[in-house]
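[User]
If only I could read backbone structure tokens as easily as an amino acid sequence. I have put the entry right below:
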Amino acid sequence: MIRPKLIAVLPSQLLRGFISHYWMSLDNLDTAYSILPDGAVDLVINQSARSTQIWAYGTSTSKSVVALEQQTHYLGIRFKPGKSRHFIRAAANELTDRCEPAEGLLSFCLESVLENIVNSDTPNQLNTVLESHIAKRQPVSAKIDDVVAFIEATHGATRIDETAATFGISRRQLERTFLKTVGVSPKLFCSITRFSHAGSLIQRASTSLADVALKSGYSDQSHMNHEFRRLASLSPAMYTRGDVAFLQDVTLPSS
């Protein structure tokens, strides 16, 4: 049986500071999918012949398996770490390792998009709705956004005390704000970012696992193995065989 294609689309230029991508899975045939920790919050719409539902999926701290409905269309918005605060009223840590009905949580209206998500113009409709929301709200960048960007730029290879000092805040303040904004502690986010970086290196067939561990900042390959099992419940060797998350294993367009 052929698995329905997962489509990933970049948002408009105006939204790329807030949203990683939109994704769609039409006429789904799978009964479940795996979610791996990535520090992001997703808004998920599932539309069947019977109903349309919207869910807010918080970031996860370990691998989890979520049930899927067959013959159902799925549409998702992947917010960048810390950016869901501009679109969802709940703090990120209120959603961590949870899935909640989005009713009452959204600070924008999706009614125009929900009429029919199986539409080639759906990404443009999302752009229109979210750009309008941003224009009215005028989000202000916060220091925590710079911290997130710094951790991502270093692939998680930074110490929390040093990071806090770099941005002129105490470790306790950083941890409190980070947890509320991103949904996990800065230490765990560093681990997740390093894990994601290692995963991307593993996809390069010419890179050995020992080299991946070294380039990703792990003390050795055993340390990397431990982190992969802690965060994804699989070994790096299993990752090379493609046993990765259904929704997160997507190839984004280059522009």
